[in-house]
Amino acid sequence: MKEFIKWLLAIVIMLLLCAGFMYLFTYTRLRPGSSSAPSPTNPDGAELPRATGLAQCTAAPFVMPTAGWVGILYGDSILGTVNHSGLDIFGLEGNGVTAVYAAFDGYVTRLPEWTSAVIIRHPQDPLAPGRQIWTYYTHMGDSSGQSYVIDQIPPGTVELPVKQGTLLGYQGDYNGQSWRPIDTHLHFSIVLDDGKGRFLNETDIANTIDPSPYLGMRLSTSCADRPPLCRPDFACGPIASR
Ligand SMILES: [Zn+2]
């Protein structure tokens, strides 16, 4: 019996250590005030505390889809292995407050099972005409499952036309079935089409596009500005490419 309790304790401690490590590794470094955190700014480069929702860099086709601190960039490592397929923008205002907007004109779809996400189809990639792309927005809900997507985009919505800057919902901390708590933010990614009019699985970075040229900022982990700034030379050079 004693032996059993010893083993049980050892397992519980191991699990707690693992959970603690994963939590700290993923999010603590991104919180404001943490020493390694990039300082927040707005997309036009002024030393403002936050990126500004709807702000648009010169010559960039997309608007910034929400306000906040662009804490996790394209290609950043999550849990040491998974490369992040988009941008995580932390509003720092708590759940259900910070608005999320369509980055570009298109047609919004929300699958029946989506609590916190919507996806917008853009028939013409503004930077590569002739191909279709998608923009994906998620974490618009809270951990109890309450959705912050606006009522006009209920689950099951298919191909509702939206303009650039249309309100989609509000940032939250909904994370699906995962036990891992997350801070309130928007996850935003640009997703490739399968060539038959369907979006690919955006959790795989290979199915997504570097958002840098679409927002006019260096947002790829290989040569990112931290904090991001509007700049005409947003492209990463060959040395920095992954
Ligand atoms: Zn994310």
Describe this protein's structure.
By secondary structure, the protein is of the alpha+beta class. The chain folds into two domains: 1-30; 39-215, Glucose Permease (Domain IIA) (Distorted Sandwich). The chain contains two helices and twelve strands; from the N terminus they run αββββββββββββα. β6 and β7 form a beta hairpin. The termini are far apart. The relative contact order is 0.18. The structure holds zinc ion. Zinc ion binds next to loops. The site of zinc ion (ZN) has 5 residues, from loops.
Q: What is the CATH topology descriptor of the largest domain?
A: Glucose Permease (Domain IIA)
In the CATH scheme, the class of the largest domain would be: Mainly Beta
Number of domains: 2
Query: What is the tally of helical segments?
Result: 2
Radius of gyration from CA coordinates: 19 Å
Q: What fraction, in percent, of the residue positions are helical?
A: 10-25%
What's the end-to-end separation, in Å? 53 Å
Structure characteristics:
8-stranded antiparallel beta sheet; 242 residues; 19% strand; alpha+beta; 12% helix; binds zinc ion; 2 domains; Glucose Permease (Domain IIA)
SSE blueprint:
Blueprint: H1 2-27, E1 69-72, E2 77-78, E3 82-83, E4 87-90, E5 99-101, E6 106-109, E7 118-122, E8 133-138, E9 160-162, E10 167-170, E11 186-192, E12 208-209, H2 212-215
Antiparallel strand pairs: 1-4, 2-3, 4-11, 5-10, 6-7, 6-9, 7-8, 8-11, 11-12
Bound molecules: zinc ion (ZN).
